[in-house]
């Protein structure tokens, strides 16, 4: 679905143009074309391929979708794949933004991402001097928008982890903890898969051998890289902490189990005393003098309770009860 | 077993040629020979070695089979080993495709792989401009076919993992889970062994110092590398998740065990009360006034049941029952 | 909040100058301006941006705060982010110091850090020859101060670990140990996040391609790098030891549990003997000759105790009691 | 102990020569000397040092033995240390082969290795064109022989692992499994110690900056490297699988334990019912009407068995029995 | 404390010289000064700094002590920090050797190390041709001495590990094993901290860009590096094995626990049979014909024992007893 197809001259919006005229505008010097697609069908992409003279392999990737994030050079143009990460309720969905960048055009196509990038275009149109920096700046602006949307996701994952941590040493919550930790881990892995390859790709847009297109915007891409690096650091800490938390959770199960076992065993011992004594005086020997005593029964009861009480006191003291 | 032995001129199929004439065709400029073998015996390979002037060590590798995936340069020719991975029922079988690539020939030999590569040749013959790009393009097409067949395998491993994950928090399924996780892990390791070394090998066919043969097809090999990278990422996520799942499964065993233990202990306590009381009134003391009461028995029963009921209510409340 | 705004000439303090005159002083050769801010608001930073001609992205980072440690080049100036780590009671707080370094100025801004860097300025003013080495030396001095404050934190973490280790093989302390280990681990991860990226950043200030500013102070930055390396080594040892300690702690829980279980089972066996014997002689068979014996009861008691005693002795011998 | 000391001319064996004449032969162009030692004593090595002008440090290493595998350059000669790995019964023994390689000589010395390398020399003498390739080819041939002997060891370790895996999910074999896994792991580590450093060393004999000696045999050393790489891959898979297997084994212990516990608890419950009922009717209350009934006893027995039967049926259904 | 302060000329000892004359000797060509200190105080080091014109930062490091091992270049001189590791009884102590190396001097200072390096000096003085190789050779000799002393420590750690391994599958030794493994691990980490950074430092003294001082002694430093590499390999194997051993030990606890549990449960079942039967015949029903039988009692006993015996036989058979 075509969202926008606009020609710019010296950073200023000229007009919405029909798709068929794109190649004409590209041929005229000083013009710049910026097209946005959403969930494009193969036919749409094929038309774009003809208008922009895109590379076959790049278009194939964009048509298939489901690519890993990357930044690839095709001659003097770039092909970037970004992944958007959105949290809808408790579910994390991963979308994709494919960006074709040439010397005087940008073609972006998003899939499976509910939030668009109209704000990026609006801001770019408000500040013509930015747009005048060329197509790499548009790529930067799109990347920056995508990466900025990772931060709230990371924050949510962090706060989810903190919530679990608050309950990790509480008895009886281990089953829920482990389920939540497991689910959190899979979300973290998903986010990591969006962040790490992109970081690698962006790393090639500043510093060393940089594509001609991006030569003047290196500091901007370094900034994006830096944001990704920060996210990656947090993500790794979360992963590391989840592993430890799972281990600790298992320890807590074992410790709780062992405490419950001790308590039960203590009570079992106290009851066993009663039963053993009662069994003793329930024997049918003819000559058991205490059975004949007048106060035999209360004395028996008293001795039973005193032994049980002594045990109770000892178990209490050694922390078993 | 010889499958095909075809000479091409300017991308178009000329004729099936006998093996003995290969060296003659290779000597004439503008010709291109493409031979396919299946489960070749040493004699067949030796003949090929003579016709194509292949390097001794490469032929030795192809004869022995059972090589790790790799891409090696021998002078101006390449020797590539690919591994095919096929899922037959629940079993994963690993086959091998050895490809010898020279400036004007391709010799491919597959072993232990049920599915062939006729489709690759058919497509190449349908589109002569592709074949005209030379032998490296054929190597790319074969690699692409092999790598494309990894994707359904990865998908199956992923869906197997998801099936296990659906059962991981269900009581009583831990034994089956752990067996399936263990089996899944060994399959994942097998796939990884096919993917990782190939990725390393393909990485040398684009970007830096590239063999002369592959200079014009770098973008295609980058595409293959990119596919492998994506598979490798998924494979590593599966591995990581399996490790966590094994750990979590162990935790679940411990948690279930501890819950069952609590429930049993609670019932044991209730029965112990009955037994202790019964033992008490089964003692043979002469003077136990309650034994003489008319309603002694029902009162005894009532007190036993009320204590047991109280315990039941307490255990219920604290979640043990 | 502005703390200091001082102009220097040939290493010697000239005067406190108003913010508006900074750009004038910077324009005159031989002058050097050093400004310190604390928890600056965006307006303050915007003013500084104008006076010092700072790069937009660097100022944005400093305005937002919450950056990872880094050292970035912007043309011939540097932008460094350092993290301060302070232990207040049992809590670890992370602050931030942003340093803008140009050929003839240093602008430092600290956030969320209770302790300032007046000592650094005082020492620099006392020893004009140091300050005469230029702005990179001031950057070094600030870094050195920040990094020196990591050492007591590391020492505290180490001694906390040692305290836990002293208790790790003591029965009954496992629950507390595991909680403390978990908390210690999260502190260690925080410190690591301050140290590792800074180490990477400082690594680019000596050795290879060094920014022009820092050419003459390479040995100083190597020294900072070396300190960070030492801290990183200790931090990694602590992490490694914590992992082992958690594992060992779990083992200790299992071992203690198994010892307690054995002890309980031994006592249960002894009581079971009593109960079984008593049950035997509590049966109501008509013809049980021993019940009629005169010394039946004491003999019965004696045999019960001797069997129990035998069991006690055996359990003792095999280390169960 | 001297095994062989032979001079060759243009690849053909000339004569066995006495040790004292080695230096003379080396001085004449076109000659090649190949000496083999076994478990040499220091004096022997000292003599060799003089004849071949070997480097002090290399000779020291060979004298001491017990070196890690490596390939070192000393001027225009090479010093290689290889480790042989032999399985004698169930024991793995590690031997050492030290090879000194100069432009026109090879001196090899093996220690603690039962199998020699006469086959290598015999083959080399049969095919003079191979030997004519120079001393690096001899080094390659020795390495190839050593590395080829790793394969059966790896196969044995793999089949041992498979044997353990077959028993890993079988109840009651956990103790044996864990012992065998532990032993297997230590063997794997030993083999890894022979393979990894050698791989690193061989890696320097092809591709990048290659010692002059080995310039023409690069493809051969790449082949050795490739074999080592394959072994290393298998070894790492075995290690990884052992770790998982140990973890899984622990899980199986826990699962079996928990199943046994449930079964025992179920039987305990059934017996507890009997005991509780019997205790009830063993009480001595005067007025317990059912005790007087004619069919009281059989009814009591019947009710006991029916409750026990009900429990048995329930436990069966829920899979505890 | 000054130990030695000697001037050499062309490798031969000239005289012990007073500290004040060091700078004079250094100024004369052809002279070489070698000073050894032990636990120097700051004043001593300050004096040395003046005499040798040492770099401020290096002297600061030596004064503070407690440095990580490293090799640093300061202009044309080197500053090396080595750590000595000594086993006194069961304790491992880490000392430090700081070595300042200039073109014509060596200043070594050891701290907290009981064993000195007089042997190194003695040997150097005995063999003047070695000393004539210059100051880098002295550095090598000191390093070699320090590194040689790591070997017995590694051997001791290995044999300690073997001792623990011998006991790892023995019942009842798990608590002691885990304590010893934990202690061993911390020693191994200490040693690793001495070895790894030094290896990195020494790695810069041969091969690539080597400091001018060390150009002629590269092969010696490669030898030291090789020794360190060997130690590092062993240390990593020990670490790896300790981790596995801790895991295995935990498994053994679980296995033993589960075996003991089965045995206890079996005995409990046997006793429960006695108790249930006895309870049965202890009931007070009026009409229980077997109670009246003449041989009721012995028959009862016989049936009890036969059931118990049957259970015993079954448990025996299934390996529980």
UniProtKB/TrEMBL annotation, chains A, B, C, D, E:
InterPro entries: CorA_cytoplasmic_dom, CorA_TM1_TM2, Mg/Co-transport_prot_CorA, MgTranspt_CorA/ZnTranspt_ZntB. Keywords: Cell membrane, Ion transport, Magnesium, Membrane, Transmembrane, Transmembrane helix, Transport. GO terms for molecular function: cobalt ion binding; cobalt ion transmembrane transporter activity; magnesium ion binding; magnesium ion transmembrane transporter activity. GO terms for cellular component: plasma membrane. SUPFAM superfamilies: CorA soluble domain-like, Magnesium transport protein CorA, transmembrane region. It catalyses: Mg(2+)(in) = Mg(2+)(out). It is a multi-pass membrane protein. It is found in: Cell membrane; Membrane. The chain crosses the membrane at residues 264-283, 295-313. Signal peptide: none annotated. NCBIfam families: corA. Belongs to the CorA metal ion transporter (MIT) (TC 1.A.35) family. Mediates influx of magnesium ions. Alternates between open and closed states. Activated by low cytoplasmic Mg(2+) levels. Inactive when cytoplasmic Mg(2+) levels are high. This is Magnesium transport protein CorA. It comes from Massilia eurypsychrophila. The lineage of its organism: Bacteria, Pseudomonadati, Pseudomonadota, Betaproteobacteria, Burkholderiales.
């Amino acid at each position: 679905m075509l969202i926008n197809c606009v020609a710019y001259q010296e950073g200023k919006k000229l007009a919405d143009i029909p798709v068929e005229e794109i190649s004409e505008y590209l041929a005229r010097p000083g013009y710049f074309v910026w097209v946005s697609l959403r969930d494009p069908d193969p036919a749409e992409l094929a038309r774009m391929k003809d208008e922009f003279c895109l590379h076959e392999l790049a278009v194939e990737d964009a048509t298939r979708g489901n690519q890993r994030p990357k930044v690839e050079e095709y001659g003097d143009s770039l092909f970037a794949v970004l992944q958007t990460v959105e949290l809808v309720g408790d579910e994390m969905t991963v979308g994709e933004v494919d960006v074709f960048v040439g010397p005087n055009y940008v073609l972006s196509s998003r899939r499976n991402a509910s939030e668009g990038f109209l704000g990026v275009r609006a801001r770019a149109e408000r500040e013509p001097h930015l747009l005048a920096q060329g197509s790499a700046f548009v790529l930067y602006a799109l990347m920056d928008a995508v990466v900025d949307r990772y931060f709230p996701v990371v924050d949510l994952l962090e706060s989810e982890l903190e919530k679990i941590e608050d309950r990790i040493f509480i008895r009886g919550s281990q089953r829920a903890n482990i389920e939540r930790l497991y689910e959190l881990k899979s979300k973290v892995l998903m986010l990591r898969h969006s962040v790490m390859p992109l970081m690698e790709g962006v790393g090639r847009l500043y510093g060393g051998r940089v594509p001609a297109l991006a030569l003047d915007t290196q500091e901007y891409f370094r900034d994006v890289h830096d944001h990704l690096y920060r996210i990656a650091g947090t993500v790794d800490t979360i992963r590391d902490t989840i592993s430890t938390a799972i281990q600790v959770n298992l320890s807590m199960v074992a410790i709780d189990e062992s405490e419950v076992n001790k308590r039960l065993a203590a009570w079992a011992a106290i009851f066993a005393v009663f039963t053993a004594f009662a069994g003793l005086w329930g024997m049918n020997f003819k000559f058991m003098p205490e059975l004949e005593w007048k106060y035999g029964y209360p004395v028996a009861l008293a001795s039973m309770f005193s032994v049980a009480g002594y045990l109770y006191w000892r178990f209490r003291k050694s922390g078993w009860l």
